[in-house]
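hi support,

uploading two proteins for the ticket. first:
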Amino acid sequence: MVNIRLEGDVRGLLRKTRALAELDKKKLNAALSQGVRTSTLDRFKTGKGPDGRRWPPSQRAIAEGGKTLVDSAQLRNSIHTRSEASGFAVGTNAKHASTHQLGAKNRLIKAKRKKYLRFKVNGRWVMKKKVKVTIPARPFLGLSDDDLQEIRETTEDFLRGSGE
């Protein structure tokens, strides 16, 4: 058994302890998850990973003058959050997400809907049933230094009571 004896005016400490015990952790985690999701979506606009490094441009973006990872916006639109009192998650269930997040060497791509894949190489159209490609990592999930600062500030706001 441990006994702690506090002397002096401890009302402020007790108030803060009570506020911490009554903190709506689910609401805090929901706010944190939305902040991280917003930051993740911004990466698709800036073309930079959580570490601040630019993504290698995709061949499609180079050829068409578009942005990497946002041709159909399917990956960006698949970013969702989940939060509960014990924590939060920001992620996607898109099949190709891990390929873009981590990269892939010698990935075999096969024609599915048509007999051949059709694509341009050096200005010439090529048709193949399958092709091996290397896809560089373009991390879009993760926490940047700015994300960590925002998490810290949001948590402090909740602890002060202004996040409710």
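and the second one:
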Amino acid sequence: MSTARTTTEIRTARRFGLTDTYVAPIAVGAMLMGTRTPEDESRRILDHFVTEVVPRFAAPDGSAVPGMIDTADCYCWWEDHGSLGGHSESLLGRWLRDSGARPSVHLATKGSARLQTLDGVFVDGTEDWDVARKLFVGTSAEVLREALAASLDRLGLERIDLYYVHVDDRSTPLEETLGLLAGAVDAGLIGAYGWSNVATWRLAQIRAICEDHGWPQPVALQQQHSYLRTGAGHDGGSIVSAEQLDYLRAYPDLQLVAYSPVLKGLYSDHAKRDPRFWAMGAYAGPDAEARLAAVDEVAAQAGATGNQVVLAWMMAQDRPTQIPLIGARTFDQYLECIEAVDLDLGREQLELLDHAGA
């Protein structure tokens, strides 16, 4: 039996985990805003999202809901050599000030993945991520306290709705990190917190420590997640695994926010399905081929693009619920994806997608 609802039913707002917050069921990622996506085009995307998309959703009591916009303090140093980031947060701060859109936005940002230095990070003008990952500032209380203050300043806010640990830091005691985050919630600096790029066993540790100390639990898990399933032997800790999906079903208070939901557009662009394309590499194999064939079949039936089919399928899931995060570079890319909210998939189409695979 399918675990999905029909897409007509998901045009109400999404309850965020088990919190009292409701949001639009699709979110906008601002990673490239202020660098590869120029300010005028970034504002066009943001304006469209809060004026044309978010108002179409309401809480069960009929009240207006915000839409999630997601960023991070390190965005986007690799697009501006010589910088440690902050471009996206600064742009969002200017846009929030100029647009008056703050009530329509559930704002999420992240800390812990800024670089300590750029020394040795660029080789022949290209970033070396193996080096960069060794230079993340981490999650000590001192680092996160300073990072949160800097994010608030760039965003021009007194409170951030959702604050993530961007990259799990196993060198800092979890009690230290969680104590800082719990204190930030108590102080009203953040509404809630979440974790990203983290293993399931760490989530279990976090839950136990919070229970022991009476601290608020994280409300969100942001991981790479899409319709395709990873191939045999893949060991990437940032992609949702079958085990992690099982954990999320057991703990629905932790909302899955899915980044890279359309895998750089490969559901619509068949040329990107080559296993040599980096976004496809973790998924390539017979199972992916069968699931891509199902996407193509449903897209043809529905008169939609592959990206739209996948996003509609993701929004229809309820075990666990998932909020896909669109990180488009251009307004046209954004528009293709956001139009998934208009896509009506029938139960038979959803079940075809659910059951496809080798």
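thanks. also noticed: The chain is about 35% helix and 15% strand.
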